């Protein structure tokens, strides 16, 4: 059966469409909200127009005090107009900031969803290893483009697992301990092999790599979850 492969482009394509639709929806909603807000705001010259009507409709206001009052109203209308214009600018800037923040939040959310999907794909299929070279003499492991220097005991543990993987075998903790120590499996403790596996994972360091490289199959044992054809012993 032909193995199915999932590329990063295939995974991120739905996320890109979601981002585009989300950004369009956010911008559309904020544009509608902004238009409705600016339509319902009073006109900046509304106060001045009212004062002008007072001047036109009250020609009999001729005393000095009445004229002074009208002048004060006119100045107040001008101040109100300038304040309202500044409010409009502040509202516009806030809407722009709100749009930017919502778009950024949506993009981050989609990136997290895509990352979680990618991690789920990795967990289901195992780590994608193109090359695993084990050098017993140098006690080094070359995993793709990563190099690990191991202790002798840890290197032997990984070598035993690699040999078992090439033979399509799954080893229990007791079997691992027996192959390394040279004793019979019946005389070895399961916990000893589990301890060796733990030391191997700790030595590899990267939790994602170690957990996906060395798989623990319930009630069966341990194995390397990689293609046996990429393993090379030197």
Structure description:
By secondary structure, the protein is an alpha+beta fold. The protein folds into two domains: 118 residues; 102 residues, Arc Repressor Mutant, subunit A. The strands form two sheets. Strands 3-2-1-6 form a four-stranded mixed β-sheet, covered by helices on one side. It is rod-shaped. The N terminus is likely disordered.
N- to C-terminal distance: 32 Å
Structural class: alpha+beta
Largest sheet: 4 strands, mixed
Model regions low in confidence, pLDDT < 50 over at least 5 residues: 1-9
Strand order of the largest sheet: 3-2-1-6
Shape: rod-shaped
Could you tell me the mean pLDDT? 76
- Count every beta strand, where a strand is a DSSP E run of 2 or more residues: 6
Give the number of helices. 7
Order of helices and strands: HHHEEEHHHHEEE
What is Rg?
37 Å
> Portion of residues in helices?
55-70%
How many structural domains in the coordinates? 2
- What proportion strand? 5-15%
Topology:
Layout: H1 8-40, H2 46-57, H3 64-125, E1 132-135, E2 140-143, E3 146-149, H4 152-166, H5 173-181, H6 190-204, H7 207-213, E4 214-217, E5 221-224, E6 231-233
Parallel strand pairs: 1-6
Antiparallel strand pairs: 1-2, 2-3, 4-5
Label this structure with key terms:
alpha+beta; Arc Repressor Mutant, subunit A; 2 domains; four-stranded mixed sheet; 65% helix; 10% strand; disordered N terminus
In short:
The protein is α+β, with helices and mostly antiparallel strands and 234 residues long. It is built from seven helices and six strands.
